[in-house]
Design a protein that fits this description.
It comes from Zafaria cholistanensis. The protein is of the alpha+beta class and about 160 residues long. It contains 3 helices and 6 strands, in the order ααββαββββ. The chain has one domain: Nuclear Transport Factor 2, Chain: A, CATH 3.10.450.50. It is globular. It has a 6-stranded mixed β-sheet. Strand 1 and strand 2 form a beta hairpin.
Length: about 160
Amino acid sequence: MTETTANMLQHFRAHQLLTTYTRMVDAKDVEGLATIAHPDIVLVRSADRAPRAGREAFLDLYRDFARSDVQESQHMATNLSVTELDDGSLAVAARFLAITTHPDGARATWGRYNDEIAQHKGKWVFTAKRIQVVRTALVDGDMLAPLNASSFDPMPR
């Protein structure tokens, strides 16, 4: 395998895992998230006082999210960069945008992921998940268009 092919494969693996993660978060699929988290995963978030260590501590964040007032969510990751580490694991850096709706409006949160992934029992999983929120914008409910509004017709006011 050429170096270029190997780099493309690493990028593909990282992209697939990150996409799986965002879809599972949006679906509030805590059981699914457990399958892509290493037993010794470390979660670091800018909103937390200290890192969370271990799969159950990692999943607690997403259990809280599933119980929250979030009605719908859409997480998107972009600007993916992958670097192979000395032990064969991968450092994965990306930017994210998460849009969530709540009973009183919506939030747009953006920031950075700086993760590490590795093979565990023949499957690529997260060994470290680092979430750095840059900012969150709040949108009042009366600023949201009706659900049946067309994206290209004039918006009702």
